[in-house]
Structure formats: structure tokens, C-alpha cells
Description:
Number of strands: 0
Number of domains: 2
Mean pLDDT: 91
Structural class: mainly alpha
Helix content: 55-70%
Largest sheet: none
Strand content: under 5%
Distance between the termini: 16 Å
Number of helices: 17
Amino acid sequence: MLFNSLGYLFFLPIVFILYWFVTGKNLKAQNILLLVASYFFYACWDWRFLFLLLFSSLLDYFTGLKMQDAQNEKRKKIWFWLSIIINIGFLAIFKYYNFFAESFAELLSNVGLKVNVWAIKVILPVGISFYTFHGLSYVIDIYKNRIKAEKNFVDYAVFVSFFPLLVAGPIERATHLLPQIKKERHFDYVKAVDGLKQILWGLFKKVVIADNCAEYANLIFNNSDSYSGSTLVLGALFFAFQIYGDFSGYSDIALGTARLFGIDLLRNFAFPYFSRDIAEFWRRWHISLSTWFRDYLYFPLGGSRGNTWIKVRNTFIIFIVSGFWHGANWTFIAWGVLNALYFLPVLLLNRNRNNLETVAAGKLFPSIKELASIGATFSLTVFAWIFFRAESMQHAFSYIDSMFSWSLFSNPDFNGKKMALLTLALCLFFIIIEWLGREGQYALSHMGQHWSKSVRFAFYSFLVFLMGMYMSTNETPFIYFQF
């Protein structure tokens, strides 16, 4: 079930009405309803994988209790590693087995040994990377004595499988979400309206920006050998807006939906394309994943403490693992390595904490220096996205080679060029709204506070009009569902 589908348009109001008006504000009934709704939501993708989600939840719930009740450190460690190994094992089998098997066979073939590998022909369970990381953070926090094990299975299961975040995050922490699940919730009109505004903006990002940019990004990337360097630059730009509109749009809808039920999820995006350096970009892009790796991998490895070698090692580890998390392809690893190379100079010069505040806060326009920094960071990011989008390393290098040719200075030429210009105009409108709203939690959070009701209504109606005009007739899945 997609957020931008007709099915979800019926599903959400039904769950909302049952949640606030039928459960009688009974916390236990509300949580049971959320769990049932979440399992139904997930089963709409493929009901068979519902058993994998349930098993993962039971595993971490059970091992969490066993760790807490362990009589000694040895038993606690046994239960901890049982959970870690099984969780990572499932993720490795479903997501990475074929990649490692095929890479191993290719390596042997390069030295003259031909082997036939057994590949697993099974689709990747949607959301497995996200709900696995929910469970991993939970058992790690119990093992480190940061939290107590949850005794109520329904409450724990809602934490793992709450439907707004189930298939593409944000990646929640038990320390943040579980207390909200266990606390009585009462309908808050202001919070609900704010949630609807964020859902509206998320849908706009998805159906107007991401889906329209996807049409031209796919056209150019899939036929990159036939186009000029200038056209390939446009293709990379279209993908940059596609992936941002798609993923941050999903996150906005998820956060807005959760707010309708009185729950606040972790913020996942903070206007990353307005970053002034690559360190700021990674503080603002996919925040829940970046902070997860920071807290559970980077800091335990020593972080940025220690000598230069340790700093370099830890930086490459964190970015390579982050790239590999996105998928079993060398292109994602290359994307991670490239971002590590971007990040290292900032880290080694101790400038990684320079830009902590919102750019040009309280001002309408940035300074020339800020604008140049934003442009440089955005350009580096767009270049890295080429590896993320390419089908293979060969495709990525071929794309880059063709892009940096003399045809880079020619006029872009491809089918649908005139409509593509309209899409670029929509992207410009999108950038303006994001810039004006950059000091809020999302673009529309503070926008229009001093407008009259009629002006606000006209603005929101205009967004709905654009969605109606430019929405694809086909339901388009979100990019991060494949991760």
C-alpha cells in the first residue's frame, strides 16, 4: 500500500476514526488497533513476509527480556549475540547473499576458476533494513543498560512496526518512541492540522517533484550513451531532485501521519540541499540513519578521537557501511567511498562542526560566500548521485566520461525537452518554498502564519491543483522501498 495510492486514501481515515472515536481513548485498545493496522498495511505488500516481521519482533522482544533477567554477564552476552547474529543473518540472506556469491564467483573467474553459484530467487522483503535496525538498536540499548526491556509485547511490536515508518523509516529508537506508545494520548487539533500540512507537502514533493523528475532522470540515465554532456548534467540534476523529493516526501508523510495519532517521530531531513559543506549535508540528510551509524558504529570505533589514521579509518568505515546499507551493488559502495573522500578534508581540518545553524537565519538572501558554499556542496552531492543511480560501475564511469566531454557546452537535446523545462520550473518553485521555510521543521510548518485564512486556503489549494495537474496516472513506489 503506497502513501500516494487510492487504497491509503481510504485506509488512513478509517484507522484515524477508529483510533480516536471507537477505542474510547483507551490506551491498550489504541495500541492494539495500531498494531493490527500496521500488520494489515504491511500484509498489503506481501502477506508472506508478515511472518518474517513477526518473527523479528518476537526474537528481539524475547532476547531483550532474557538479557534483562540474565544472572551473569556471560548469559546476557549469549542472548545479545543470538539476537544480533539472527537479525544480521536474515538481512544478509535476503539482501546480500546473491551479491557476495556472484562477486566471489567473478573473483574466481578472473584467476581462471569457473564456478557455478547458487542464487536465491526471492524478492527483498520491503522495509527489512528499517525494522531490523529498529530491533538492533533496542537490543543494543538493553545490553548497554541504557533502557529496560519492554514487557508488553503489543507496545514493543507497535514500536517496531508502526505503519507510517515501517517500510522506509525514519529509523526510530526505543528511547524516543516507546515512551510515547506507553503514554496516554489525547487528540490535539493543532497537532493534527500540522500533521495534515506536512502530509500535503510530502505528497507535493513525491507526486509533483519526484515523479516528474524521475521521468527525465530515467530517460537520460537509461540512454546515457546517446546524449550530450549537457544533457547528462541535466539527468544528474533531475535525479538529485527525484531522490530528495521522493525520500524526504515519504518522511514528511510519515511524520505527518504519526502526528495525526498523537505521536512524534524523529526528523529525517532538514533541508540538506542548503548545506554549506559535506558535514552539514550529512547532518541534514537521512538523519535517523546517519545518527544510527554514528551512535552504534562510529562512536564505538572511537569516532574522531585518536590519531589521524583512526579518524580516516572510521570515516571510511561509516560511509562504506552506509553505502552498503542502501543495497548490494558496488555503485552504492563507490557512492559511500566518494562521500568519505568529500568528508575527510572537513574532518581533518576540524571544520566539520562549523555550520551548525540554519544558513542565513533570519535573512531573506544568503551572502555571496554562503551561496558559493551551497553551490559547491550541491555540485559535489549531485556528482556522487551518479554512482547511486547508475546500474553498474561501468555505467557510472561511462556516464561521467560522456558528461565531461566537449558536448558539455552544447545545448541539451532529448525527447520531451519542453515538458522537462516545465518540470525545472516546478523544481524552482519547490526550491523557493523550501528556502522560505528552511527555519521550520518542514517547509510549510511556519509558512503563512500571518496570512489570512483565505490566502492560506488559496495557497494550499494551489498545491493540490498542481498535484492534480502533474500526478502520474500510475502509482509510483518510493525509491527507498527497495532498501
